[in-house]
## 1
Amino acid sequence: MIVADRKPIEEIIEEVKGYKHILVLGCNECVTVCEAGGKKEVGVLASALRMHAMNEGREVQIDEHTLERQCDHEYLEEIRDRIDQYDAVVSLACGVGVQFMAEKYHSTPIYPGVNTTFLGATEERGLWTERCQACGSCILARTGGICPIARCAKRLLNGPCGGSSSGRCEINKDVDCAWHLIIERLKALGKLEDYEELSPLKDWSKDRAGGPRKVVREDVQL
Amino acid sequence: MRLKYPTDIRIVRVPCTGKVDVLHMLRAFEKGADGVYVVGCLEGDCHYNSGNLRARKRVEQVQKILDTIGIGGERAQMYNLSSGEGPLFAKYATEMHERILEMGPNPIKARRQQAA
Amino acid sequence: MNVKTPSRLEKVLAAGHLAVTSECGPPRGSDPQVIEEKANLIKDYVDAVNITDNQTSVTRMCSLAACIRLKQMGLDPVLQMVTRDRNRIALQSDILGAASFDIHNILCLSGDHQSFGDNPQGQNVHDIDSMQLIQTVRRMRDEGKFLGGDDIKRPPQMFVGAAANPFADPFEIRVPRLAKKVKAGAEFIQTQCIYNIDKFEEWMKGVRDRGLHEKVYILAGMTPMKSVGMAKYMKNRVPGMDVPDEIIKRLSGVPKDKQADEGIQICIEHIQRLKEVEGVAGFHIMAIEWEQKVPEIVKGAGLYPRPDVA
């Protein structure tokens, strides 16, 4: 899923302090699972914004709503009939949802309420870690199912570097060395000899380097 | 035991403090409560293992938010005691009461009254 | 004698001599004298001099410019190049720039992570990795082609090196990793600083078992300890470094003002011992900000005078 983290409330307060009628808009997908932008977080942020404004003697109305998804036209349409009553929207969706909102409701100011951080997994409650960088041409078949692009600090395709120590990355002892994990996995699979295959130069044109990407599927287009 | 504790405290009973959410506490403050405290079982004695530990973390979150928005984090507190400790319950109630008297009323309440 | 480039380092190695290289870190400023002074201290005692490339991710004068200065002084520079700061366009371009000044050695590295340096908020590049840089230089030299496939007019003539850390984890892939670098096209190896001689010999045995010592020249990395403080720092703080307790004990056993001499003595003893190890083709002496001690070490280890191969 897309993992996001809550923005500090003071940062959001600063962004929206000039508005009187604000919609705090959550998303029921990834950001709900990572507890950054679901219905509950919408309630907490809205309550804090209301109390802050009231405490400063400002009269504001802050409404709460959570959509099934903010990255789909049909769900975003749900608020079309009332979007015009708002001076601004704080979207707690990931960067995709925030932008889709902005595109759809062109004349309404939209502010992000979360920092979108990575594509990752829930390792345990309250701990999310990165797994994928969406590079556009998956190499997991060659790396024991562990991605060195997402998980090696130097995204080495022929690692590990000399800084790997006791299975940990040189940048931080809390970070696993991706290549150590790859080697352990290759061993478990009985394929350690694959380690000596040189990985060719990567084609980064499928990555962000190639500019904004697009997937076109004529077979499913109407 | 006929213990006395301040009369301006309203008790909301929950099956476990693990049921108390950040949002419940914030709503109480929004409606004008001067303070909210959560009284859970002793740490290590939760029937649901970690309900009271979760509650403590949530109280801490509320404290942080209240500090950020200028209401005062001290208005939210977490206490632990066992069901047999009536005198301690009364002591904590008095302690909370005095804390609030010292801090004064929730500024939100005053603003609401001004507005009305 | 079969050599592929005009590199003096390659000639020394091909002639069967134990080679000696050292390194100079460029200054954090634009004063050319710093690099010249360091070079003058060591030039008669080594066959080639590495110039580090923004080592530990701290911004310094560029390796290429400093190499050009050494070249103009008549030395044989080894251009260190990390893949952290340049993409494949810049790497190939800098290689050609170096070749235009007849710089004949390159050491291909990935580079320390930028979080260690003075710009931890910077982006890193890592378009290709150190093994792929080795392949890139070999392709440019041997096939006379850019990565994109076009022909290079006057291809670079560079003796291609790589680093190896015999001590990093996991140990079991340390020899396979060297094999991989050799397969990529590395012709010489400069190792991480060696303090744990037993472990290094164990690695060398693995290297010999696979016949890798006949395919690549291995220069053993040596860094003299200036003090017990430095030894402790290397042991505890530098990733991938293996400093046995006996080194620390030995340095602690002498008074503070004698620790530097003891460090030099340990370094010389280590070289003496490693000279006897089959497959060790020479020594890479990294006297960090202590270049003036290189002559003493080289002489003490019986590696002076340097052979004349020109």
## 2
Amino acid sequence: MSFFGFDPTGPSSSRGLDDDQLETYNYEDTYEGLGDEGDDALNDETFGAASSNIGKDFDFTGGMGMKPAAPSQPTTQHISYAQAAQTDEILQPMASLWTDESKAATGERPTEPKILSLEEIEAKLRGNQPQQHLQMPPPPQQQLPPYMLLPPQIQQQILNAAVASGQFPNAAAAAQAMSQGFMPPPPPFNQGMMPPQFMPFPPQMAQQQMLNIPSQFNQGIPPMTQQQQPPVDASQQQQQQSQPPQQQQQQPPQQHQIPQQPKPQQHQNLKQQLLPSQDQQQARTEKRDVDFPVLGATKEEPGNHITPQEPQTLPQQQPQQQHQQQSQHQQQQNYRNNYNNSGNNGNNGNNRHHHFNQQQRQHQHQLQMQQQFESMTPEEREKFLTRQQKVSKITRCSGFMNPRDKDFVTRFQLSQIVTDDPYNEDFYCQVYKVLNSSIHENNMSSIAQKYLDQSGHRLGGRSKRADVALQRMQQQVSKAVTVAKERGERTGVLSREGALGKVSFGTGKEPRKQLVLKTKEESADAEDDYLPKEYSFSKSSRTFQLSIIENIYSQILKLESMERENQEFTTVELWKSLHLSDKMSTSSGEVIGPFISILSFDKMMKVFNRLFHFLTAEQKFQLIEYIFTNLQKIDVILKGSYKNYIQENYEVPEAVTKKIDLFQLTIMKTLVLYLSESKFQDVLRVLDVVISNNNVLFLSTTKLGLSLVTILTSRLELIKQEFAQSLSAQDLSQWQFVYDKLFQCLEGRLTTIFPPYLSNDESKKVKTSTSGADDSYIWQFLASLSLAGLLNHQRIIVDEIRNEIFGIMALAKTSNESGDVEKANKALGNLNLFLNVMGLKATENDISELS
Amino acid sequence: MSEITSTPVPSSEPLDLIKLCLDEQIFVKLRGSREMIGKLHAYDSHCNMVLSDAVETIYYVHDSQSGEIKSKTKKSEMVFVRGDSVILVTDAANV
Amino acid sequence: MSSFQPINPKPYLLSLIDSKIIIKLKFNNIEYKGTLKSVDNYFNLLLKEDVIEIDKNMESTDGSIVGTPLNGELFIRCNNVLWVSQDLSDDDDDGKVEEGKQVDDDVDATMS
């Protein structure tokens, strides 16, 4: 191959040198460490035959032939399909052509069955293109000794020659041999079938080049054959042995002779001599095949070969091809020697010719391809092209690994994944096995079936262990899609608490832990009576707060008057007056933003809307974010939790209740209005901020906190459902993520959102003056929570608050019985607000599906 | 305690205190041994004030001999306090 | 004291701002001790939150001063003020004017 690579530059420039080189050239030199050359030469020969045969169709005058490029183009009208296929595959740069060709040249002989099947395929293909049809099905290129690429007619000629030469008893045997690549290029030449003028390359050129090559090597030019070629010496020796000794001896001197057109008879002689050597060559290649890991052997199976072209792409064939080339080269040299013996002039010409053939084989292939292509009907072309594409696509990466490689990798992977429970842990291994064992049937059900077989199943699986493993695997898969988010960021372990205790599921990433330690934060959350500290301020702070408010008021009044008079105004002063970046510490040392602290003043609540009105959009969002970040620090919300008043029978003081109402009427109203016009991302961000900066569990015990979260979640879900198309996948996944965070905060403690005085859970409820107050905000929250959640979320919710649901139903029943229909309807209405989300409907007696 | 030592809006004059207490509970000491707590709605420079939900506490000597002092309270939803009777005003939270 | 220098009321009051003062009301023998925060043209007075209310009637028995901290700023309407003076009884104060202290002492003495 490398040899060929040389050629393009070589021919013209090296001509002059050739003669000189020839003089120094001797057999040993050429072969020393340069087996490639020899092989290449041999290749040349075989291909040379092909090209020369092809040349029949074209008239090539020697003069014309002087230019390497020119002759090749016209030469090839008929291509063997195999040839076409070879070139097809590549079609691109010369280099790739070369390699491919060489690959093609060698092919995998070892497996006869393959050959046959390929032959069949080719025969079919031939059927499509009658003009190329031969009596002999063209051998698959894979294995195809170079001469196989010859046009059919020529092949036949070769066959005939072979038979005639007595190597084969009859044509059939010869054909067989040929198809198997055992047959050397027979002596069509001998029979004078190839007139010199048909030869695609001017003999002189060829000769020059031939001669040139050894000289180049001698001169220290790196051989292009470096690629994994094993030293060819042995094979060369073999070949040499096979050749009559005299030939070798005669080689060197004759090479300087002036190129002349080859003479057919000489060819004949050469070919005959070549026969044995080629056999050897083949034997050698076979041996090589064995030595080599059979790369891509599986790939080469008939099933994979859709078309004959495919084999060429298999990289593993290269080495073999190279070998062949090497041997060919050697043979060529022998050849040359032979020529020298018989007739110098002719010999040289012939050599050159072969060499050129080799060089330009690719050109020819390409050209042949083109011509063939041109001769096709449009449909055929299209078909041809698409097939070509397909083939190249399919085979692009095929054969990179041979079965042993794969096996190694597999074993390696397996060894890595050996765990106590590999079936459970390694999904990919499973799938790999499944896919590997069922290439043809890769529909899902068969995969599933295989998987079951492999991993075991209760209906006849391998083992119980596997059975469990399967279930867990299934769990994992479904969890991966749906519940992965439920996994806490903190723990990373999916855990579930049930009546029987806590179960945690391990994952590959986060193995199951023997001990699940609660973090401080968690345990704090878990404590029922956890409360954020109340913020109390010194008197001076109060004055300060009041003065802030006063300042805000005056700013607002100023702005309002300016607005009334349609003056330009800026909100810089006002923004400053909010002191958002300031901190003040409470008497207990807590640090809190002044603005948050003043939100609990009635007059601040009252002015909030007016204040908000003047802010720019940017400021508005900033303010909103700020407020939600500090939600649980807002005095009204803080004091609104029923947990503050355990001593007082959970009764929230009237003053606080009043403030809460005021907050709802003022700030909350403003916030809701704002949020109802906000973008999805903004709302989502706000919710995220709430969850990350506040104790959601505590917030949920307050009416205001719960209501605000409800507003956010329902707004998000609303946008998601109404304007889903405007949301990116990222938005949605982000929302899912935030939701899971939220849900995780509440999961397992959902009942705490029911203040005892509003609860209908018999075990919990407390009768107070505020019992019977409106609890719709709780049900609204539950509704929005389950609306945004998945089925399993909903299931958890229902499960947790089951008692409340039944309590409401019982309440409705007793109310109805006592004649208080209105109360019953109201209670059921709230409950149904929640249940309807899940397509359920409750009456005082039972829960049914929503019709 | 506020970390911010210098009040951003210093009461530049005494009446500003009353201003700050707008809409807040305010404590007013009146002549005639009366105190009043209520939410300040309005005021002027004479300390005339309007309070809502005001609770007026009147101290009187129950028994002149023992000097025992008693008090009674009087609530009014909205009340106007004439400034000339006002002795002092402070934030109700302080009392 | 040494050389007479006329001081007008308003500049005097303004000079007392941020220093400890005592305010005596016209009636009930009540004094307020605290730091003067501001004064206006009516001579309305505003005391800082350290203000203490002293009912002179209650302390007569043993002479000890019984004060009730108000814990908040105090507005005193002008018309009720009998007099205003600097409070020099507090050692920890900056003790602005020596003379004033003497005066106060005098006053206290006379009062008691």
## 3
Amino acid sequence: MKLWITILAAAVLSLAAGTSAFAARTDLVIGIPLEPPHLDPTAGAAAAIDEVLYANVFEGLTRIGPNGEVLPDLAESWTISDDGKVYTFKLHTGVKFHDGTDFDAADVKFSLDRARADNSVNAQKVLFAAIDTVDVVDPATVKVTLKNPQGSFLYNMGWGDAVIVAPESADTNKEKPIGTGPFKFQSWAKGSSITLVKSDNYWGTPASLDKAEFRIVPDAAAYVPALLSGDIQAFPFFDADSVAQVKDDPRFKVVIGATEGETILSINNKKPPFDKLQVRQAISYALDRKAIIDGASAGLGQPIGSHMSPANKDYVDLTGRYPHDVAKAKELLKEAGLENGFKATLKLPPPTYARLGGEIIASQLRDVGIDLEIIPVEWAQWLDQVFTKKDYDLTIVSHTEPNDIDIYSRKDYYFNYDNPAFDKVIADLGVTSDEAKRKELLGQAQKILADDAVVGFLYELPKIGVWDANLQGLWENAPIQANDLTKVKWSE
Amino acid sequence: MTAYLLKRLAIAIATLVLASMVVFAVLEILPGDPARLMLGMNASADQVELLRNQMGLNAPLAWRYLHWTGGLLSLDFGRSYTYSVPVIDLVRERLAVSLPLALIALALSTLIAIPVGLFSASRRGRAGDTISMGAAQLGVAVPNFWFALMLIYVFAVWLRLVPAGGFPGWSAGVWPALKSLLLPALALALPQAAILARVTRSALIEVLNEDYIRTARAKGLPYRAVLWRHALRNAMIPVLTILGLQFAFLLAGTIIIENVFYLPGLGRLVFQAITQRDLIVVESVVMLLVAAVIAVNLLVDLSYAVVDPRLRSRQ
């Protein structure tokens, strides 16, 4: 006993000498939970890729701003033909890739053609489906012709999967990403951290930070000590359960924003008895969203009534459509001929919202006579059994893609939902670019989903950011999964 | 000795072949498609199929097994699906963390455990013994991640002597790298030391009851000399066995500590590869670990012969 105290004391003394002072004010260490599998945003669905590279290293024709708005990026302006099919982009000139090669219209054509090619493994290939041809008019002008008008085309071009890459470096971006952004890639210590440094010849407003390190911290238990010790100065995606430990500490800022993650109780709409509208509605009445948010997300997160973020400009509040009403739920089950209740399974992927939320939902559904067997699954299993093979009754998952209400109209999607009226609204939406009309159509779409009680709409996943109180410019909301550092700086 | 070694070698090879079959079969049965996992929920079935072809996942099972084991024989461990770099490079990077960590932890654990065990055994039943064995009991019972968190709060948050976690890499210098391994090594070492101290104590007590100890004492050797020269050496066999087991555990079973300190070690590589269905990484790393465990066991067996000359002559 005495011995190890002596050893510790010796360690303390010898370490004291090697302690460094505070980091310089142009340095930033950001904690991220998952390591990207590789560093090419055009070749994978993992959100962690965009969380490091989007807007920092890679840029697109357009980009998504902090509140989900479409902003010009490499394209300084554009014109749209009257029939909505031809987009002519005017590009910034004098732009260079980090390896010194010039950026021009040919790179745009290369990137878009590469993403939509037959052998492309771009994870969001659907974004490029409407493109018919891409033509280089001159080095600073590119013309994109669509097969049909597409209301969301400019937004689509702002995704991380649509960033512009150079033919010289496209094949090696996975290991050594070369983009046009204000930061360039410096190093990747696998399993540990990825370091970006300021690019000297950036075409736009240069970044304030000289160096940004993304450190991979997989365990939420390590977040608080890392902040308190000053090792890491920002966690843009913090853990809900640990918020209480830092929220009253003046050294840190806790910022609760919105994501595009609609957290839902997915229902297999073709599997009896869930094919009956009354049964799905009964489930919606049986859910007490407040209790779920309190239990699964530490009380953070806004309830939703359909598949749309409350932060979205086209959001319609439908949370009152199915108030928590056990009697009504039982009555609907009786109408469906299931007054004695029934048994079903609930498959839960690993995130906390699913595992904790699942237990609460199981107890709420038990109150109306639905007896759920909880089956925890890994992500790989979930994608295989639930998402691909549709072998499930109920599951909980957060759909984090932005503006993804169209998934309910996809053929063969895992909800097994099929409503021609809804499909028509989405088809109309696809060819409408008028803002007012889009708003109306999106409103209709939300209402149809709520009326059909396609799934149990729970809440919008919150974006919980915790960072040093002197740090400015990190995003409050997460309209896309990104850590845009272009405007981040230290105060003082 | 040669016959003994040859026999051990044959057993080791048979174990490796069997392990390769089990590992391959288990990962094949495991549900989950690496291609779908990489492309996410928005990709079409055709695209997933395309990627599966590119990754060589659609080849027949037997061919893939032979291809993999054939590669292993020529020391080619394949390429990671997710990282698309050779598996051996990943392992080398991770071993740069895991191996020093395991060695430091093992050294700390031995340095703590043997003196404590000696102290306890020589003071059997007295206050000192009760206290140190009580502490050891606590060390066995308290989970190492809790130790880890307490160490972080004291040494990283409060005293700010070492980083709370992370690994700067050996390229950042020996001292910064070592510094980041100290707390995790200590957190790993304490519970191991507790076990080892108890084993040392009971082995010593058993030996101290032997007739030859009484004889040694009777012929006038001082107690201290008997303890060090006669008792400790004879008590080493169970201690070495435990040490061997602990080293194998420390090499790959440290995933919890690696997570708490966010260290890029071997345990986390395997864990991450399993969740991402990076099958080739799991398969190859597990095989390497099997080989390492077999090698350590062999070393332990040989070390018995070093501490106990009787075992040497018997062969």
## 4
Amino acid sequence: MDFLRPATWADALAAKAARPGALPLQGGTDVMVELNFDVRRPAALLDLSGIAELRDWEEDGPVLRIGAGVPYARIIDELGARLPGLAQAARTVGSPQIRNRGTLGGNLGAASPAGDGHPPLLAGGAAVEVESAARGVRTIPVGDFFTGVKRNALESDELIRAVRVPPAPGPQYFAKIGTRNAMVIAVCSFALALDPVRRAVGTGVGSAGPTPLRAAAAEEFLAARLDWAGRGPLDAGVAREFGELVRAAAAPIDDVRGTAAYRRHALSVLARRTLGWAWDEHRADTAREAS
Amino acid sequence: MRVNVTVNGSAETVDDVWEGESLLYLLRERMGLPGSKNACEQGECGSCTVYLDDVPVCACLVAAGQAEGRRVRTVEGLAEGGRLDPVQEAFVEAGAVQCGFCTPGLVVQTHALIARDPDPSDADIREALAGNLCRCTGYEKILDAVRLAARRKATA
């Protein structure tokens, strides 16, 4: 096995082009488990942890551009106010030690259907910025990025450079089912984002299908039925129907963490619950504006 | 491959490191530092917690090559001048050690918590230690030790 340690992003892209089989390594929280248990033996490891520009985030016009190597702990501390849904999901990743190392870039590279970062990126309308030495940069909407179980849209010579996501225009929430708060791979998870200006709803469903997915019909239904301007109390029937549509969007399986039936039920509950929190926040925002 | 790394203040060069091995293996098997424990090898238990450039991490999930040019501080590096760190003393005094296997990781993680937050609430302590498992389940004594260490630090 070779250990490739590029010092710059350009060197990393050149190395990936020369060695398409090299496995990118960021925080190591997924890759090293596979190496330690000898379930994977790549021809080369491509260590990206020494590339400074991947560890930065910046405002880039209307979006936040988060380098692929920014660990979850820093997303929580530095971006929590502007990306509350992503920060809530980041808080549920592993443990403090894991959050000090794990990154969005690694989460997207692994492309597990259970990745905690994925539902809030789907709900928040994020895009993945990828790059190759030969063809330069392309930006993939996160909904098109996941192509199958632990598969993504990266070509063999491409690396993930950054995630581009707009700051939250309204309430965002994330909820996850597991046996305890820490060190849990989601039984299922759900992210909700409300955009009161565009009167739009975003959703993300985790661990309930071959890929993380959006519940498009639920989004359309809810966007049309919420009392955006009046900000009246949430209609219980609307909340229930929203939960049912999220349940219908899921395509879970039975596995060691839970049954498909339980996941569907739990998702309908999480959808209703996060909607309650988000709507309460939306109504409180008015109260603040009026006072 | 060769890895150059500063461990507990000492600049070291280690040869013949396998490219796929972890920092934990490097520390324990090649550098004679068995304080960091090898238990789960998947980041679940926290027994191998060390500082990597002042940030606590699971050494089992850091590739040895990723430590190149960086600073590592293990549980062996907490005591200074032949005297235990106050966190270590607190664990001894509170009886927060049963079989002892989880203790080095808990000590390093507690050390980091108290450095960041000298007066942690119980909820803060539980959150900070959520990635450190004690299979003897001696958690109450461990919480006592963390509170004691924080009090000592506040009055020191």
